[in-house]
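Supplementary Note 3. Input sequence used for the single-chain structure prediction.
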Amino acid sequence: MTTPIVSLTDAGKSYNKLDALQSVTMTLGEGEVLGLFGHNGAGKTTMMKLILGVISPSRGQVAVMGMAPDSKEAWHCRTKVGYLPENVSFYEQLTGLEVLTYFAKLKGFNKKQAIDLLEQVGITHAMKRQVKTYSKGMRQRLGLAQAFIGEPKLLLLDEPTVGLDPIATGDFYRTVDQLKSQGSSVILCSHVLPGVEQHIDRAMILSSGQLLAMGSLAELRHQAALPVEIKAHGLNGAIASHDHLANFISPVCSQTLNVPEAEKISVLKTLLGFDNIEDIHVESANLEQVYQHYLALHAQKQQAKGQS
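The predicted structure, written as discrete structure tokens, is reproduced below.
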């Protein structure tokens, strides 16, 4: 059995009486992309800092490439880790090329890789300009280039698409897919859920330092028992007069059915039996809906606990 790139075993972090991260157990395999989701204060950044070894756990164990990341023995593993913080900050007076060459040399790489990475993130045209002249999006691209130095085995990205336009966001996800195909493991922390789901293998949802759910999107959908939305066009009142289909009609639209996953195929077969069917659109719950479901469930539990 291969050693996971990242392993947390009942790992938590407390500051005085505040639990920034309650006991969390998880593993990240080689070439796996984990989406880490939660509102501000959920514990996402705390978890990333534990993995980076910037802070030590108050309880439990953290291992990165088989070592405690806050130990002296882990220093040589750090060249294999890339990190993009939520708020990137660079020396304003240096040029983009000077900044990236500096970080590349810290990791044992040369100026050529710095130039190649600047081209990869699309800011070659500005590499000889001072960073103080860069827009927020350009600084974010420079931060991404810094995180990609040395094709890291582990990449931690905290809100990586903030400030990026749609084209740059698409380029970023293509780079993540490429790194994954080369065996890199990625933890991707984001508030921006649309567009993320096709690039992650599993999702991890945190709230108030607590792990609410973790698994593939299909697994989370199944656990949440969220319905599949089926829109049938051309049937007019036929659905409402059908004994079985009428049970699934959405309160919002008479042409839309909210169907349990287990009954999806039988409902589709029934719909295809209508001669005047014009079109069918099938949509499973997306990442945003799954995320909102688990947050709402957590809020209900907290409320019930407060009332008991």
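The first strand starts at residue 6 and ends at 15. The longest helix spans residues 287-307.
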